[in-house]
């Protein structure tokens, strides 16, 4: 039985090499072992999807001589991943796909003793904006109507999200305090479950990444009424931003690849080259458009500076919402 | 057996109390307007565990379960020896993973079990304890793309050679 | 009629030589992955996802569907032959599959499982074909209160399932439910029950860790100690004739469970957040309740194998429904399939059925073909698994330990969980010696993580008012039935107890 599968895999692998024109990068440093590709979330969420997409592009293009091994370590809101990287046995072969719990989890769980500024920046694959969605049957079509409705319901307006302290809850908390809204926030298990709850009208509104709500948007079930991006999004040109409404606030989920602390500069350079190729690939560029991600390319020094500002911002945001 | 039953119930009761204490780190009450707090579910269920232990002790006192009526020793020397040999073997197996890697530990465990507990012949023992880890290596690392623990640094050259073969 | 022609096109697409080869390979690979404790369809689908970049989307999804089917059939194999449920969906299969194997009737159990799986898959496929879009929107009306009511019902069908010792059974259920809360409380966003302040507990305690510990280590130690190392399971050689007679017996003694499982499984499977595991557990409970000789259950009843197996296949097919019609994953496996669809440039969501008709029906067509292929391939491999059981126990036992440990690591990727498996195994050995039933704990750790959040979400929705479980049109009746079912055995127990106390 093992033989058949091995043969099969060998066949598949050799056909990969034979059919795809891209070639592996020639470098001084090359990985000698399979590369631990830790995903900071459970299977199925946005981060997982992106990680598997990236893995597929790497595999299809045969960009590395050792495979990426995607492993979900979403426990404790990403704490498990952070600890795994911090204590990595072999930093040169340990990478992580992050979301914003990269910043929030070390702040919320100080006992972990994780300092993300010691991690190694690799590549920023893009940032994922947030959008406020309502169901089409709610009768709400603009943000002003939404605010009026929430105020009128006086604490009974129900929104769903992925949990207190998660990205969407930060956005909702900011919005609530800015407009004096009293929202009944209900945590669900992941972005998919949140979208399902809105589709079934178990809840009245959500703040989701576009990718998670896109199917229902296209079918007309969901209506975007506000985006939390810096400028209007190409996918929803008629949807105003919170900034237009006079609030100096935007919020994105980062989709970045990060290396373990203590990774050698040669290894980091190798991975930057590999994921730079992924970033430039047609597949990834199409993905950015279809999933409404914004590009945000950065080099190592900029990334480090960006991290410090993000940590400071999140510390402030979490303090503001009382966490 | 009789002594064992009540000792076990006592241990489990202690464990339940620990869980109850641990659960109080989050609110265990019913928060008005928001439903139960984060510690509600584990706390009250741990209390149910504790009460079950009390009921078990009560049944023991009344001699209602077979174990509580039996004066036989919990396990004879053969039983303890088996537990030590087999259970101890498994514990050693898992402990060895961090030293000689998953595959090395499997080989040693099979060698120990087949030869010393199973009393199989050396050729059979060696055949299984060498071929199975290699087969598992190909299955997990090459086919399933799952990296197993590699133990301490001295196993690395061996793995590097194996990876050169499979990738 | 239009549907029918789409479906026939889909079936022909699946029957194209390349696709047929992919189905056969996919089913075989899936079967072995599923048979491995700790690995399931999610692993199979995840590793082969990148390869699907090389073939057209239609072939890719056919291939993945074949792996999915293969793994579902494979789950029963480890439940029966090793006594370890390889996936949470196969827990109930061990209840009767394992006793049958120990009686030397492993082949009957495996044949029953295969046939029941086939019927379950087929029934689900037919429902799927006929009612997909309607059912999908109906499933959305199941919010947290409805799912919680359903979980209550699942528990209710299990009251009095195992053990005559009531306090020990209650202890076991509560232990499972408490262990399920270890790790992280998503509702308040805070770590919870991080036992002894060990960071490893942040990831929680997975079903698979407890199941492998209890069944793979604990039960094995118990068997070895109990039999003084001389386990005798007389599994006769497999012959074609023997298998035919097993098949006949499977049909005669397992048809009822099969039908119960097929229907319950499908309807529970299509609900978001519920999925195949509660479906298979409830089917087992219901089959036992409706059976004329419920005392046979747990001692090797073919119905007891057929019901959960039919249900988990039926439910797994059903859980594709919210994914295809709404773009909502019902399980980790469908979540990865969903990711695959994005990679191939499809937009999951309500428009998929309309915009990508060919793709959707190609997939459904491949379900039919994969199901048949899985049955044939599974039956063909049964003799191999029986042969494994004929090995001397002193070889089989260490192999089971090795597979438990390596499979446990594959599922969790953490040494912490491996130590937990060993600790659970040793604890299970002692608990088993003193007649603590452990199956309820294993069930509870599966249902707990669905029950607790839905309870709390419901109460958040109603601002703390528990009437939400009674005054919603779907949740209400389910809750009432569940409560009656829970109270019924308690009343019976009290009535039965009185004369004993007097006499």
- Helix content, binned percent of chain C: over 70%
The total beta strand count of chain C reads: 2
Shape of chain C: globular
Main sheet summary of chain A? 5 strands, mixed
Assigned CATH class of the largest domain in chain A: Alpha Beta
CATH third-tier fold name of the largest domain in chain A: D-Maltodextrin-Binding Protein, domain 2
Helix content of chain A: 40-55%
Order of helices and strands of chain A: HEHEHEHEEHEHEHEHEEHHH
What form of chain A results from the Cα inertia axes?
globular
The total number of structural domains of chain A is 2
Low-confidence stretches of chain C: 499-503
Query: What is the strand content of chain C?
Result: under 5%
- Tell me the CATH architecture of the largest domain in chain A: 3-Layer(aba) Sandwich
Total helices of chain A: the number is 11
Broad structural category of chain C = mainly alpha
Biggest sheet of chain C, in brief?
2 strands, antiparallel
What's the average pLDDT of chain A? Answer: 86
Number of helices, counting only DSSP H or I runs of 4 residues or more of chain C: 20
User: What does the radius of gyration of chain A come to?
Assistant: 21 Å
Q: Most extensive chain contact? A: B-C, 68 and 63 residues
Number of domains of chain C: 1
């Amino acid at each position: 039985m093992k033989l058949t599968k091995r043969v099969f895999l060998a066949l598949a692998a050799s056909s990969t090499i034979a059919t795809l024109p891209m070639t592996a990068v020639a470098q001084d440093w090359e990985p000698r072992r399979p590369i631990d590709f830790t995903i900071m979330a459970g299977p199925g969420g946005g981060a997982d999807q992106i990680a598997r997409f990236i893995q597929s592009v790497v595999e299809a293009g045969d960009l590395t001589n050792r495979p990426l091994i995607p492993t979900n370590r979403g426990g404790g809101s990403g704490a498990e991943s952070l600890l795994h990287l911090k204590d990595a046995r072999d930093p040169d072969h340990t990478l992580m796909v992050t979301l914003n719990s990269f910043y929030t989890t070390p702040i919320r769980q100080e006992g972990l003793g994780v300092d993300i500024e010691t991690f190694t920046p690799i590549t920023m694959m893009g940032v994922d904006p947030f959008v406020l969605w309502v169901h089409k049957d709610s009768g709400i079509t603009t943000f002003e109507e939404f605010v009026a409705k929430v105020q009128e319901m006086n604490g009974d307006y129900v929104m769903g999200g992925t949990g207190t302290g998660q990205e969407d809850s930060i956005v909702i908390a900011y919005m609530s305090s800015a407009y004096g809204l009293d929202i009944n926030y209900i945590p669900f298990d992941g972005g998919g479950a949140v979208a399902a709850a809105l589709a079934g009208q178990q809840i009245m509104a959500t703040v989701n990444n576009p990718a998670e709500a896109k199917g229902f948007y296209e079918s007309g079930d969901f209506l975007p009424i506000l985006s939390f991006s810096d400028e209007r999004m190409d996918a929803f040109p008629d949807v105003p931003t919170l900034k237009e409404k006079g609030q100096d606030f935007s919020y994105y989920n980062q989709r970045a690849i990060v290396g373990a602390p203590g990774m050698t500069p040669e290894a980091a350079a190798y991975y930057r080259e590999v994921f730079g190729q992924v970033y430039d690939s047609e597949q990834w560029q199409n993905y950015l458009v279809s999933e409404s991600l914004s590009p945000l390319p950065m080099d190592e020094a900029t990334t480090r500076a960006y991290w410090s500002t993000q940590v400071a911002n999140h510390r402030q945001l979490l303090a503001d919402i009382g966490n | 057996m009789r002594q064992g039953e009540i000792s076990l119930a006592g241990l489990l009761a202690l464990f339940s109390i620990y869980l109850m204490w641990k659960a109080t780190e989050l609110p265990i009450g019913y928060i008005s307007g928001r439903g139960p707090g984060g510690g509600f579910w584990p706390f009250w269920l741990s209390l149910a565990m504790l009460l079950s232990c009390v009921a078990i002790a009560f049944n023991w006192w009344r001699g209602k379960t077979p174990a509580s009526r039996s004066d036989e020793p919990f396990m004879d020397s053969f039983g303890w020896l088996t537990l030590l040999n087999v259970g101890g073997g498994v514990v050693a197996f898992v402990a060895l993973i961090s030293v000689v890697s998953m595959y090395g530990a499997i080989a040693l465990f099979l060698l120990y079990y087949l030869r010393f507990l199973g009393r199989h012949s050396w050729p059979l023992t060696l055949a299984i304890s060498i071929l199975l880890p290699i087969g598992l290596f190909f299955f997990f690392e090459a086919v399933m793309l799952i990296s197993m623990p590699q133990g301490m640094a001295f196993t690395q050259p061996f793995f590097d050679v194996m990876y050169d073969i499979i990738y | 009629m239009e549907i029918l022609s789409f479906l026939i096109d889909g079936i022909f697409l699946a029957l194209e030589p390349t696709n047929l080869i992919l189905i056969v390979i996919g089913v075989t690979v899936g079967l072995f992955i599923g048979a491995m404790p700790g690995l399931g369809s999610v692993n199979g689908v995840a590793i082969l996802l990148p390869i699907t970049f090389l073939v057209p989307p239609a072939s890719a999804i056919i291939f993945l569907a074949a792996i999915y089917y293969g793994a579902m059939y494979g789950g029963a194999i480890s439940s029966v032959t090793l006594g370890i449920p390889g996936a949470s969906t196969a827990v109930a299969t061990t209840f009767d599959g394992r006793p049958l194997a120990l009686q030397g009737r492993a082949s009957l159990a495996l044949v029953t499982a295969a046939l029941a799986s086939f019927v379950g898959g087929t029934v689900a496929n037919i429902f799927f074909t006929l009612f997909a879009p309607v059912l999908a929107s109906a499933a959305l009306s199941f919010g947290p209160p409805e799912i919680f009511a359903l979980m209550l019902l699942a528990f209710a069908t299990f009251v009095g399932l195992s053990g005559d010792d009531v306090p020990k059974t209650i202890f076991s259920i509560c232990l499972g439910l408490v262990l399920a809360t270890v790790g992280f409380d998503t509702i308040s966003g805070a770590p919870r029950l991080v036992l002894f302040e060990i960071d490893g507990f942040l990831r929680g305690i997975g079903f698979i860790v407890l199941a492998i510990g209890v069944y793979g280590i604990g039960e094995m130690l118990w068997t070895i100690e109990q039999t003084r190392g001389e386990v005798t399971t007389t599994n006769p050689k497999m012959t074609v004739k023997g298998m035919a007679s097993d098949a006949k017996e499977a049909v005669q003694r397992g048809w009822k469970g099969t039908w119960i499982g097929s229907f319950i499984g499908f309807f529970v499977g299509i609900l978001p957040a519920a999925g195949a595991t509660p479906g298979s557990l409830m089917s087992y409970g219901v089959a036992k309740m409706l059976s004329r000789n419920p005392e046979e259950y747990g001692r090797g009843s073919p119905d007891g194998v057929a019901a959960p197996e039919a249900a988990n296949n039926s439910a797994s097919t059903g859980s594709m429904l919210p994914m295809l019609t709404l773009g909502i994953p019902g399980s980790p496996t469908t979540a990865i399939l969903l990711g695959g669809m994005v990679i191939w440039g499809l937009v999951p969501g309500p428009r998929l059925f309309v915009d990508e008709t060919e793709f959707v029906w190609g997939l459904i067509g491949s379900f039919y073909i994969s199901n048949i292929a899985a049955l044939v391939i599974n039956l063909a491999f049964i003799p191999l698994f029986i042969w494994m059981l004929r090995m001397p126990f002193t070889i089989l036992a260490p192999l089971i330990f090795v597979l438990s440990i390596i499979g446990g690591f594959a599922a969790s990727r953490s040494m912490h969980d491996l130590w937990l498996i060993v600790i659970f195994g040793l604890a299970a050995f002692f608990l088993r010696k003193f007649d603590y039933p452990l199956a309820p704990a294993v069930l509870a750790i599966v249902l707990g993580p669905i029950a607790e959040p839905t309870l709390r979400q419901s109460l958040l929705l109603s601002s703390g008012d528990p009437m939400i479980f009674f005054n919603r049109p779907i949740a209400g009746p389910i809750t009432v039935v569940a409560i009656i079912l829970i109270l019924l055995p308690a009343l019976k127990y009290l009535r039965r107890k009185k004369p004993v106390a007097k006499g």
